[in-house]
Amino acid sequence: MSDTVLILNGPNLNLLGTREPDIYGAETLADIEAAAAAHGGGLGLDVDFRQSNAEGELVEWIQGAQGTAAAIVINAGAYTHTSVAILDALLAVELPVLEVHLSNIYQRDEFRHHSYISKAATGVICGLGSQGYLLALDAIAARLNNDKKA
Ligand code: DQA
Asked: Which residue among 75, 81, 116 is best mutated to probe the pocket of ligand 1, counting the most ligand atoms within 8 A of its Cβ?
């Protein structure tokens, strides 16, 4: 049986491809979803890929991951820098969490340098564009394989 990884995308990431392409690149979210599904498949992982502009919906999806997903990859978009609710949900489910950002948030505005959700993250990947999602899947696969050996 494959392990499922829930990949969550926050506000405005539905606009990838046309949104500030100099910062976020030309790929659409559908392109990233297809790449993540293919890469996950190669690692024996099922990918459940979602996007919402609503904080509450993201919180509900995180809550629903308990018992249904083996790990969470999250690019919370701007909620990264504002949302205690998303942090609390991630802490509550006690799953491995990989935080991903397409851009290098430390090269950008000061208010992007702080992430509320990093406190719940097993690891953080930023600045590598869509490759960050694939590296997060690699890290999860390695971790799950180690757990199975233990
Ligand atoms: C982002 C960085 C955030 O600061 C921003 O609000 C986003 C995208 C990224 O992927 O680089 O929406 O999470």
From this structure: 75
